[in-house]
Amino acid sequence: TPNLPPGLEYLNQLDRIIIHQQVELLEAILGTETSSKYEIKNHLGQRVYFAVEENYCFDRNLCSPIRSFTIRIADNTGREVIRVIRPLRCNSCWFPCFLQELEVQSPPGTIAGYVVQNWDPFLPKFTIQNQSKEDVLKIIGPYATCGCFEDVDFEVKALNEMTTIGKISKYWSGFVNNVFTNTANFGIQVPVDLDVRIKAVMIGACFLIDLMFFENSLDGL
């Protein structure tokens, strides 16, 4: 398909994306936060991309849920196709002027879109924006994100917040996995004809949701 960012052609065919965080043995044994690595797969479990988080040890261990990062996403040939950039910002509804904002680039250096947190006293809310900072979609999470023995769904909605067109799901992966390794397994469901740039931004939104709500949670309890 012409005019697609290089490396995103495969997303053109997908309506479901699985993100699996790899288990870090050192983190499991010592409790030390290590750089996160992810496999991004299709619904058949075939790896499409590989993602690596880059930041400093200070950020990971002292600023863990609100830490700044750059996540580089490469295809199976090792070519970087998506870059996700998160600055260090506040993670509290009491500071509505300094909430989360994530930038997604594809190819690296070219803006694909943004994920912007919206102020709400009760619900997690985000807006997906295109490269021109025009609103495209909304993401609305549940009042409680600590799902007990069940998946946690963040609904992807039209801008009117009435029509649900997809979801980002945190899959419950068991007591041992959540308590001792804190690894994450997510699924993204979106319309197959959604712009591939927005699909790339949805992957960035998934990483942000993971760190904000599940990084240090015992959501398997």
From TrEMBL:
GO terms of molecular function: phospholipid scramblase activity
Record's keyword terms, sorted: Calcium, Lipoprotein, Palmitate
Function: May mediate accelerated ATP-independent bidirectional transbilayer migration of phospholipids upon binding calcium ions that results in a loss of phospholipid asymmetry in the plasma membrane.
Family recorded in the similarity comment: Belongs to the phospholipid scramblase family.
Superkingdom, natural source: Eukaryota
Pfam families, per database record: Scramblase (PF03803)
UniProt cross-references to InterPro entries, sorted A to Z: Scramblase
Lineage, opening ranks: Eukaryota, Metazoa, Chordata, Craniata, Vertebrata
Coiled-coil spans in chain: none
Cofactor requirement: Ca(2+)
Species, as recorded: Grallaria varia
Protein name in UniProt: Phospholipid scramblase
One cellular component term from this protein's GO annotations in UniProt: plasma membrane
KW Calcium (keyword) present: yes
